[in-house]
Amino acid sequence: MNMPRLGQGTWNMGDSAARREEELAALRAGIELGMTLIDTAEMYGDGRSESLVAEAIAGMRDRVFLVSKVLPSNASRKGVVRSCEASLKRLKTDRVDLYLLHWSGSHALEQTVRGFEDLLAAGKIRAWGVSNLDLAEMKQLAALPGGKACATNQLLYNLTRRGIEFDLLPWCQARKMPVMAYSPVEQGRILGHRTLKEVAQRLGATPAQVALAWVLRQDGVVAIPKAATVAHVRENHRALALQPDAQALKTLDAAFPPPNKARSLEML
Length: 268
Ligand SMILES: NC(=O)c1ccc[n+]([C@@H]2O[C@H](COP(=O)([O-])OP(=O)(O)OC[C@H]3O[C@@H](n4cnc5c(N)ncnc54)[C@H](OP(=O)(O)O)[C@@H]3O)[C@@H](O)[C@H]2O)c1
What we know:
Layout: E1 8-9, H1 20-32, E2 37-39, H2 48-57, E3 65-70, H3 77-91, E4 98-101, H4 109-121, E5 128-131, H5 135-142, E6 153-156, H6 168-174, E7 179-182, H7 194-203, H8 207-216, E8 221-223, H9 230-237, H10 246-255
Parallel strand pairs: 1-2, 2-3, 3-4, 4-5, 5-6, 6-7, 7-8
Helix pairs in contact: 1-2, 1-9, 3-4, 7-8, 7-10
This protein binds NADP nicotinamide-adenine-dinucleotide phosphate.
NADP nicotinamide-adenine-dinucleotide phosphate (NAP) binds at residues 9-11, 39, 102, 131-132, 154, 182-188, 191, 208, 224-229, 232, 235-236, 267-268.
């Protein structure tokens, strides 16, 4: 599966009439720049984010790699299909490129996988994956019939959330399963960090660009920052051209230490 390395998140987008035009412009600018992976979910704004995405991609659906997610409470075999069909209506399209289980809940994973397989067979999704599943759950999934078809695990990953580097990320990398790093700038909270600012200044970049380039330094990691302004989208796009050098990585490791033991999976 060919996923663009840098995509666009949409959590909290589509909720405000006053911000709508700027949000649409931001998503479209990102697509023009090649950030054609758009991540949304039925949960976001109770479908309002998906409706915004529909408007943003109108007339250019074929250029976009569309990702949406089913809530765990809807993730029975039949529920997955119902949720996806409702998402497709809001997204005004006939298929999503990648459909994810948002996090694991009370429905057996096996039933959720069955639902995904029904959707694949109907041509309503091109691939399926998961989000927020820890290593034990990934192993359980891989052991299920059809479970190895899982195309991604979307996980919280940024400078301040490095837990997955200990075991889950290497496990996915060993299986050539891309990880989608969500909240790659920790929802903006890390951008004022003194060390990050210093590294950015030395590299002639911005803190957001360094934070994103740092996430993207890993093999098989895709980042999906959310940016609701054209200026932020343009700034983030330039992270693709930034290569943090050894000195930058060392400084960042000292300020944001990598994990030295297994940790329970963090999520937002
Ligand atoms: N699977 C899951 O459970 C899960 C959980 C969380 C998120 N996600 C997905 O991942 C996406 C990204 O995560 P996120 O939205 O939580 O956080 P994020 O992308 O780390 O941060 C978004 C925040 O950072 C700001 N920002 C972005 N680029 C910036 C820049 N260049 N300079 C300054 N500020 C900048 C944005 O401001 P503006 O909006 O003003 O541009 C926004 O407030 C979500 O939108 C969603 O699609 C998935």
